[in-house]
Amino acid sequence: MKYSGLFSESRLDAGLSCPMDENDANAKTIKEYLFILLYKLWKEDEGFSGKRPFGNSGWSFELYQPLIKNNIVDYGTLDEDGYVDELPKNIDVFVSDMIIRIFTK
After folding, report:
1. What is the value of pTM for the model shown?
2. What is d(CA 18, CA 32) in angstroms, rounded to the nearest whole number?
3. How far apart are CA 100 and CA 94, in angstroms?
4. Is 75 left (phi over 0), alpha (psi -120 to 50) or beta?
5. Model confidence over 12-49: pLDDT tens digits?
6. Are 31 and 16 in contact (CB under 8 A)?
């Protein structure tokens, strides 16, 4: 697996250390959230729910929101209540690159 080449390593590191608001995984940073997600996948094995790993669907938005809020990714917007209104173009690529960064750093 290789980086997309769209983002610098320093930007990916900023994303991984980005603080999270209240979330279903009770993670303090995006890196911790991804760690908990992988741990849960491993422990629950066949019982793991990719749609609702923490009990709610839409869990990926818990990652998107702090990335947008903290200006780690460009062009995304939040509504007046702080929920994701518009997703940045390559946000899923950014999250994939952050995952690669965790294991190749």
Report:
1. 0.90
2. 10
3. 10
4. left
5. 999 999 999 999 899 999 999 999 999 999 998 888 88
6. yes
